[in-house]
Design brief:
about 180 residues, mainly alpha, two-stranded antiparallel ribbon
């Protein structure tokens, strides 16, 4: 039987997974933007060129693609790790957080096209197409690991709640405090 107790260590692992996932996601946007010649600002939940600069349409796609790609890569690496090793509940949030993050981004497309939404629109696929495909893929990874280790609904519900709360704190902190990282 796999250890599915939600302990302080697990809570810290979920918190670390949220911050790690968000930072490398946004850093990927930032490094792509900078590589394309834009002087950019990186905060906890956004990247933007300095005032007066605007991405070309193609550069906007490149910058938009980079974040989800690194987030998907993170999920795949953790999936392979959990598939090939014994259960480690402190690693699981690093698989679950990308799913939650991209689901949230998909819902935000209703308000304003997010990464996958902008890419989908650029290719004429409609705003939700890539978002749905990415989330199906990430859900499949989480589902396979949940099945392999017989993770219960209680454990996954608590994981969702913890990641949701920590993500909300991170996003609200960014909106209120405008913490500039780079």
């Amino acid at each position: 039987m796999t250890d599915q107790r939600v302990t302080w260590k697990y809570l810290l692992a979920c918190t670390g997974a949220v911050f790690f996932t968000w930072i490398i996601h946004e850093f990927s946007h930032w490094i792509t933007s900078e590589s394309l010649g834009y002087e950019s600002v990186l905060t906890l939940n956004s990247v933007s060129p300095l005032s007066g600069q605007k991405y070309s349409e193609l550069h906007n796609v490149y910058v938009s693609v980079s974040g989800p790609l690194i987030t998907i890569l993170q999920a795949v690496i953790v999936f392979v790790f959990l598939l090939s090793r014994n259960w480690n509940k402190l690693v699981y949030p690093f698989l679950f957080t990308p799913l939650y993050m991209r689901l949230l981004a998909g819902w935000m497309n209703f308000i304003n096209p997010n990464d996958e939404g902008r890419i989908s629109e650029y290719f004429g696929l409609g705003v939700f197409t890539l978002s749905v495909l990415v989330n199906i893929f990430l859900f499949f990874l989480v589902y396979k690991i949940s099945n392999k280790y017989k993770l219960g609904w209680k454990f996954n519900t608590w994981t969702t709640i913890i990641i949701m709360v920590v993500s909300s704190i991170l996003i609200l902190s960014d909106q209120i405090l405008h913490v500039r990282i780079l």
